[in-house]
Each structure stands twice: as C-alpha cells, then as structure tokens.
Amino acid sequence: MSWTNIINQTRVKDLLTASVKRKRVAHAYLFSGPTGSGKSATAIELAKVINCTKSETEACDVCSSCLRFNSLQHADVKLIFPLPVGKGEKAGDAPLAKLSDDDIATFHEQINHKAQNSYHQISIPKANTIKVNSIREIRRESSLSAFGKGKKVFIIIDAETMNDESSNAILKTLEEPHEDTLLILTTSNPDALLPTIISRCQHIRFDTLSEDVITTALIERKGITTERAKTIARLVNGNYSQALEYIDTSLEEHQQYAIEFLRAMIFKPRKVLLTEIEKITSSYEKSDIKDIFNLISQWLHDAMILQQGISSNLTAGSEESLRKFIAVYPDCDYASANESLERAVSLVDKNVYIPLIILDLSARMKKHIRGNSMVQSSVGESAESK
Prior knowledge:
The chain has 386 residues and is an alpha/beta fold.
C-alpha cells in the first residue's frame, strides 16, 4: 500500500517521492500543518520507504524491513514524543529508565496504537514536554550505524513541546548530522520552535483535509454510512485523527457535555465554574479539552447558519434547541465567540495553564453571547442545556 496509507496530501507525497528517487533526501525535515492532517503518518511512511529492501520510491510492505515498520518494531526507527519525568530521573538517564510500570505500559500501548493506526495521536498522562533525555538519546543513537541498508530515522512528534533544554540539545544534532541519519520533526505550531531549528530543516507544509476528503476516507476505509461520515467530517475541522476517534464514540454524549460546559461558562458563579474546571482538568487530557472547545464552536456555527435561514447542514445540535438559543441571544457575536474558542485551543497547544484558559474564555464568551445584558434567562439556560 505504502503512500496510499496517507490521505490526500498529494503535493507532499510527490515532493518526497521525487527526493527519494533522486537520492536527495534531506538530513532533516520539518513537517508542519493542522492537527490530524497526517504529518506523523507521512513521517513513518517516508522512513519505511527509505529502509525498504525491495523498492526505492515506494515501500513494498512485504520485505522484512517493511514488516517491522508495520509494527513499529524496526531497529532503525524511533518515535520521540512527550513523556512524564520519572521519579529521581537525572540528566543522562534513558527516557524510560525511571518511569513507573504503569507509565511504561502506557508507552508501549501508545506505540502499539500508532502501529495499528498511523493517524493515532499519542497521549500519555502527565506528559507535557519532550524531555531533554529523549533528545540526548537521539544524539547517542545517531552516532551508530543503521542496521539495514537505509537510514536511522528519528521522528519527533509535536516538536513544539520541546522545552528550552531539549530545543538546544536537538540543535547540536541538526548542526552535525550523520550521513545515515534522518530527523523528522512534526508540529502544528511551527512558530513555537526556535528559528534556528526551522532553518536547519527542509520545511514541508501539510494542507488542511477538507470535509469531502475526510468523508470519503471514512466511508472507503472504515465502512461507515455516508450520513455519519458527513456528520463526523463537519465536526472535526480537518482533523482525521479526531474523526477516527469519533467513529466508536457517542457524538451525542460529547456534544451534550460541550454545551453543558458552555452553559457553565456563561451562567454559573465563579465558585461553581471553578469546581467544573477542576473536574474537567482532572478527568480529561489536553486533546479532550480541545475537542470540547471545538464542539462548542461547531454548535455556535450551527446556530449562526440557522439564524441565516439555513437548516440543512446542522451537525452539533437539534434545531429546536438552537432556535431557542437564537431567540434569547439574537445579537450573539458568533465571529468573536469562535475567535475566542480558536484562541483557547491555541493556548492549550502552548501548554498555558488550563484553568486560566477556561476562566479567560468564560469572560470572553459572556461578552460575545450575552453582550451587555448579563441577565440570566431561564429560557437561555434551557436552550444551552439541550
């Protein structure tokens, strides 16, 4: 299958294929683009192609190298991503050496999920940054020769989560690359990286996946109904990784909680809101919190298009509850509300303290939705709770 594993991104695949064919693969790439657009999936596929023993421009998927890549057990590929700091961990320790048994089990579980689904977004509890020990291990291992005929490939997922120490450490490897080593950094926020890191990589930008592309992929690859595929595609804003997560979950439950949380931000007293914030930060990962923000955004988008007289493309809420919302808040500033939600998602990606993000968002949403009235309405409460 090889490059057909990657959804769309034809321009990116053509560029990388041409580089492999001309034997002009860079020593380091920076793959940037929207979350869920296929950056790490493409990085894994490129690593597989480079190390395939039977083909030069496309992985055969049958040789021993490709088969090991398919399980992510290849000696010449290593994924680097945020990990917790182990108890008593010191500089120079192996990244997994001081982790608890539970953390190590989660690590291997996430690698297994990634092997089965290259679009899986790796997430480990209490892992917010890429540790300097993970980067230092790259430098140690990159000095060794590749086991096969290809290259040793290090894929740094969510490179924007490197702290200052990790960023400075990766610069040393980028400045003195080994001939048979390839580094691939992926990020949804290239502005968070040091300019010196960006300048030492060949920067390839990924396109946002359209609703039609995601709908088609869900139908053809996952066999779900056209109606459900379209509903999911509209909700995920180009994030195919998130679309896959929604296949086996109850969209209705996610949507219901998102709207209940919107109601809490708009109406509840600060003390009650703080309790809700504590609940959400203790029960959900960063990716889940971003999902909640995105679902609120989609619900408000539905309200906006319904207000404009369009009701055929509603996805996040029933028409009845949306009409009640519109009746109570006819002057809602939808554009500003969605800008504030996008800002909140961006701040989550930048590792800003979650409770502060939500408190700030709450103040902004009250202003955008309720305007100057700030008078609680029982009808409004009913509308937002549905």
